[in-house]
Amino acid sequence: MRLRRRSNTKEVLQALKERVVLEPKALRGKWAERFGNDRPIHVELGMGKGRFISLMSLKYPDINFIGMDMYDELIRKANEKAEETRAEWSRIHGAEPPNNLMLALGNIEFIEEMFAPGEVERIYLNFSDPWPKTRHAPRRLTHANFLKKYRNILNDNGEIHFKTDSVSLFEFSLNSFAEMELMMRNISLDLHAGGMAPNNVMTEYEEKFASQGMKIHRVEVIVGEKAVARRREELEETRRKRLAAEQEQDQD
């Protein structure tokens, strides 16, 4: 992503203390206090210009959202997007939008220094840099080194939702999840094959790629113990229903 930094970005961000967090390490273990409630916290790592996280925060007002990026100019752009989407939401609904969005300046490599164990319920990884060269594999956000950190900060209901247009990154990621013995569901090799996927919120990249007919790959990774238990119950219920249906057909 080519990014031109405006000269006054630092000063602008320092004046946006209500939504922008420039020192997220200071809020480790205190994000609920900062939001003023104990609702689940969902974090997008590498949010880009902020379209996804802004729209998600309006779509799900009972969840607290944090968009994180390491570039201050992207934090500024994401705040501008948040202001834009919230103004439009207020115009349509005739009410104040939910106050459930924070934008944090931080390097994902140090994610454990920004969130305490179990402080996050869901992590979104959307169109992360594929780092295609083999020697750069440890930089991929789905590398085992990062997954171990995510697993530490995710709670018992923790999940990772991952989307990419890169076939090589998706294959690498599926292998990483499997090697970590993480359960997966809703694996899609072409998310919009039958038209735009329902309830799916697009990033800027996704909207562009999908409009060009490019395939979007997506998977949900289940990390927390309670989330895993629920998934196993779902699978067992599906198995029981299938067996019952087969027995009914045999009787006919």
Strand content: 15-25%
Q: Care to count the β-strands?
A: 8
| Fraction of residues in H or I helices | 25-40%
CATH architectural group: 3-Layer(aba) Sandwich
Number of domains: 1
Largest sheet: 8 strands, mixed
Overall morphology: globular
Order of helices and strands: HEHEHEHEEHEHEHEH
CATH topology: Rossmann fold
Give the class-level CATH name. Answer: Alpha Beta
The spatial strand order of the largest sheet comes to 1-4-3-2-5-6-8-7
Distance between the termini: 61 Å
Q: Could you report the average pLDDT, rounded to the nearest whole number? A: 94
Structural Rg: 20 Å
Structure annotation, total helices: 8
Oligomer: single chain
The low-confidence parts are: none
CATH superfamily heading: Vaccinia Virus protein VP39
Global structural class: alpha/beta
Short description:
With 252 residues, this protein is of the alpha/beta class.
Provide a descriptive summary of the structure in words:
With about 250 residues, this protein is an alpha/beta fold. The protein has one domain (about 10-225): 3-Layer(aba) Sandwich (Rossmann fold). Helix content is about 40%, strand content about 20%. It contains eight helices and eight strands; from the N terminus they run αβαβαβαββαβαβαβα. The protein has helices spanning about 10-15, 30-35, 50-60, 70-95, 145-155, 165-180, 205-210, 225-250; strands at about 20, 40-45, 65-70, 100-105, 120-125, 155-165, 185-190, 215-220. An eight-stranded mixed β-sheet has the order 1-4-3-2-5-6-8-7, with helices on both faces. The longest helix is centred in the last third of the chain and has 27 residues, at about 225-250. It is globular, with a radius of gyration of 20 Å. The N and C termini lie far apart (about 60 Å). The relative contact order is 0.12.
